Fold this protein.
Amino acid sequence: MVKILCGIFGCISEDVLEKILDGLKRLEYRGYDSVGIAIIDNNKIIIRKDKGKISEFIKNLDLNNIKSNIGIGHTRWATHGAPSKENAHPHMDCSGRIAIVHNGVLENFLQIREELIKKGHRFSSKTDSEVIAHLIEDFINNGLSLKEAIRNTFKILKGSIACAIISTIEPDKIICYRRESPLVIGISSKGVFCASDIPALLPYTRNIAIIPDDKIVILEKNKVQAEDINGEICKLEYNEVTWNLEQAEKSGYPHFMIKEIFEQPRAISDTLKIPLIYIDRAIEYLENKNKRIYLTGSGTSYHACLFGSYLASHLLSMDIRPVISSEFTEILSSLENSTVIAISQSGETADTLNAIRYAKSKGAKIIGITNTLGSSITNLSDVYICTQSGPEIGVAATKTFLTQLISITLLFLRYGLKKGKISEVDYSKLMSEINRIPKIIEEILKKSDIIKNIALKYSSKQNAYFLARGINLVTALEGALKLKEISYIHAEGYPAGESKHGPIALIEPGFLCIFIAPKDNTREKIIGNIMEMKARGAEIFSIITEGDEEIKEISDEYFEVPHIHYILYPILCTVPLQLFAYYVAVFRGLDPDKPRNLAKSVTVP
Ligand code: F6R
């Protein structure tokens, strides 16, 4: 699984500072909000870090006369703690003997941080990562060696981790550890290197090893040694990388969009690790009696709002209204005693920010759901939840959409549990269904060739309807938006029941109708809608639950997803439609990463 949140680069070599800065520049494409480096000079760790771009950071760097041959660097994409100098990596322990950089999400850091504070540790940031340096220090204070302390630290810490550590205790080493987040190493006559991704290593070596999960790798001059978490020596497998720089940035995928689609299992796993305290803080704003709750967002994020609205009705028996942000001020007048849940991956969409400002001016409270910590939405919201997708570079939203759906599900499920609207048993059942999603999506992605063939068959169509009932209307709308924005095919998402009130007039032989028809309580009616379209010569492509022979029979093409609780089907069924849009665009000779007339962040109203 690929993980992009932050960039790590470390090396033991000549001209370490230049190499670290160059390595970080080569990781810039991943997106970041702050930069930092730590080097060892005269047995002292020197740290420089700041919010902002690498070019600015270099301009202000005051380390001209330092000649170090060991160091680590980091570009940060904020997930815990806003972008700021304090929160930028590297982080140090209290004694100044240990510096760490980390990429990933630590699940149990809050509890460990509290225990360490009780023991006298002083923290200088609001990040989850800083706890790593202090925990290592704590073990060392209790008599363990540096390596033993590092092993114990990673045995205790839960979550996704790629980490590089330097210490004045063993000043000739960089110690790396990896679990779920990527970390690669390379060795050549130019030095020994570690990095989050291959592009950063290409100027020095093409002989690269991926650190296996749960392994520690010790880098020394001209030497690399891998151990398991108990200190047993193990082997690293080196491979010759033949990618050019552009291919390497996309981890070998031809486009960012497909890379990001394949990152979804990881993005969801990390979003599922959001500490409950963040969810509980948001719930406080939902709890007042007689409160009205609204959801607002634009484009794909509006579809996440619609999902939230169906979820609230089905799970909580609550009517929560979704409102498209650009219409918010036109349709809502009195917002006193209300809470608005505003969803925006970028956190900078002008329409959504206008809706928030308007709602605030009328006395509403705001819960933000965003992928971009430090964005305007995090500043304007009373409380926010940060989805853990990592930066999304393709213009079409993919992984950020699925993590929005996961976040809103976590929020409403927990709210339902607290309010007694969902029993403990139902909560646990649903949570175990949700926890299966990353694995299920991995399985769906393994079948991407099926979608590729269907996309080839339909790539020259001029029109498509995406039809569904109930909560899968969300999937239909999102599938149509994806197809239209990157393939320029005219595509419309409709409630299937509504199709006979007008849209059916367009159906003639060969018109493409895509049905989202998993096994839920709308299935019988959907079969009726399929037959109506089929009778008029439409070509039918259905997304169905595995083994649904009846719908297979009446469809020209189908794609099967595993069975899951019905309210979670939009999360699964969106994936084949993202793949469909992507492959259709590619077959039409278009660049899916850069659709015409669209920008990643729409900052004009
Ligand atoms: C569709 C897409 C757009 C965005 C919309 C809102 O693929 O990317 O529809 O969803 O512009 O953007 P955010 O979520 O950044 O507010």
In short: The chain has a mean pLDDT of 93. The longest strand covers residues 34-41. The pocket of fructose -6-phosphate is lined by residues 298-301, 344-346, 349, 352, 396-397, 481, 485, 601-602 (CB under 6 Å).
